[in-house]
Design brief:
alpha+beta, two-stranded antiparallel sheet, 9 helices, 40% helix, extended
Amino acid sequence: TKSISRFGRNTVDVITYMRELREIGVEIFFEKENISSLDPKIDFMLTILSSIAQEESRSISTNVKWSYEKKFKKGIVDARRIYGYDVVDSKYQIIPEEADVVRKMFELVLRGHKVNDIAKNLNASGIKSLTNKDWTYGAIKHILSNERYIGDALLRKTVTIDYLTKKVVKNDNVADKYYVSNNHEAIITKDDFEAVQLLLKDKSRSLRNTSKITKYPLSGIIYCPKCGRTLKRQQVNRGVNMRVVFNCNHYYGNEQLCSSTTPNYDLVLEATYDSIRELYSNESAL
């Protein structure tokens, strides 16, 4: 390998993997330092040298974060290719054909169509996504909620929390965000964009708009208190341990899993029967 810093910037990782490779008879030769992993003095030397490499990585990460912070504060938008826009001289430029598709997506939502139905519509029309693949729920939802289509830009949506693992998380009050208005030409009006955001958040409209016809009692008419989706009847643990539950995650192609529990189907059914019996025994309630 060229150098210790190329092999790894984490001291623990360098030592651990070097020892594992040594145990199976694999030698590592570090060209820049001119040392071999078979050298008996290597462990001490690597501890010092890899620590320097790790500190170098931290320093680089700090400098990069500082430079991005300065750009964010100045309102400089790092323009990257997204569906509907090309990037010319670091500026967004509308692609008319793709912009028409984006407008169609927003128009269909405003007319009451669900995101999955829009995906089916576009795929049936032979319209491909930015990666030249079929449209998915997630890809369309991302476009419908992206402020760049109204000419604005929200900066620092994600944050790298560890310079060693490069782990990136959603920026939920982890660091300052910056919002740049009127940064480029808009494809969607702000009124239409805000209306679509309200419709996407309206779970009672977008998630409960499902068929209520089913051969099983209560399926499709009981809703999850956490995510708002209808609870579906599902068989769990085939065989002697098989049981039937209500599950809001039991959807084909579901991409948004809920942490809600799965109540026993028979228990819910019996509780419903008890409520009906109690209601019918009360003449004043009738």
